Amino acid sequence: MPKFVDAVKGFGVTLGSMFKRPITEGYPEKPGPVAPRYHGRHQLNRYPDGLEKCIGCELCAWACPADAIYVEGASNTETQRYSPGERYGRVYQINYLRCIGCGLCIEACPTRALTMTNIYELADDNRGDLIYGKDKLLAPLQPGMQAPPHAMAPGTTDDDYYLGRVTPSQEVPR
């Protein structure tokens, strides 16, 4: 008799869930909400005038335990300036086949050039498309920004950029 009671209890769970309304998610057409602090795809940020924040120091690549980041720095010149200071990241790649999303690269960046966005759809059917270069990682130009290469804002120094004293109109607030 106890085996029969156990079987009825098991069927009770099944019967109880049979008459509940199913929960259907329309994921591809209607993606659900994402937590505001979710760490998804990386983004290389810019200063308000359009210059890149990445200085090509390679600290993010050294901090990455999965060896998913490749950075090749180069020197800025007065005619070809991509970031304030002496250097910029000429080549910047993140291999999302290797990336484990730990965020150690974010912590290692001294200029806050690298952050993580809420974008979580990184699946693809081609392995080569999951190696993101600067063309996919750089933040888009906002209104008032000028595409690099261009000179630093008139009358500014590297410190003005790092301390946030440069505005989109390339004027230094006094």
UniProtKB/TrEMBL annotation:
GO BP: aerobic respiration
Keyword field contains Transmembrane helix: no
Annotated [4Fe-4S] cluster 2 binding sites: C64, C99, C102, C105
Protein EC: 7.1.1.-
Cell compartments where the protein resides: Cell membrane
Keywords per UniProt: 4Fe-4S, Cell membrane, Iron, Iron-sulfur, Membrane, Metal-binding, NAD, Quinone, Repeat, Translocase, Ubiquinone
Coiled coil regions, renumbered to chain: none
Membrane topology: Peripheral membrane protein
Record region (Disordered): 144-174
Gene3D superfamilies: 3.30.70.3270
Positions that bind [4Fe-4S] cluster 1: C54, C57, C60, C109
PROSITE patterns: 4FE4S_FER_1, 4FE4S_FER_2
4Fe-4S ferredoxin-type domain mapped to chain residues: 44-74, 90-119
Main location: membrane
GO molecular function: 4 iron, 4 sulfur cluster binding; iron ion binding; NADH dehydrogenase (quinone) (non-electrogenic) activity; quinone binding
GO annotation, cellular component aspect: plasma membrane
Reaction catalysed by this enzyme: a quinone + NADH + 5 H(+)(in) = a quinol + NAD(+) + 4 H(+)(out)
Cofactor note: Binds 2 [4Fe-4S] clusters per subunit.
CC cofactor: [4Fe-4S] cluster
A Pfam family: Fer4_7
Quaternary structure annotation from Swiss-Prot or TrEMBL: NDH-1 is composed of 14 different subunits. Subunits NuoA, H, J, K, L, M, N constitute the membrane sector of the complex.
UniProt cross-references to PANTHER family, sorted A to Z: NADH DEHYDROGENASE [UBIQUINONE] IRON-SULFUR PROTEIN 8, MITOCHONDRIAL, NADH DEHYDROGENASE UBIQUINONE IRON-SULFUR PROTEIN 8, MITOCHONDRIAL
Family from the record: Belongs to the complex I 23 kDa subunit family.
Job description of the protein: NDH-1 shuttles electrons from NADH, via FMN and iron-sulfur (Fe-S) centers, to quinones in the respiratory chain. The immediate electron acceptor for the enzyme in this species is believed to be ubiquinone. Couples the redox reaction to proton translocation (for every two electrons transferred, four hydrogen ions are translocated across the cytoplasmic membrane), and thus conserves the redox energy in a proton gradient.
Stated name of the protein: NADH-quinone oxidoreductase subunit I
Phylogenetic lineage: Bacteria, Bacillati, Actinomycetota, Actinomycetes, Mycobacteriales
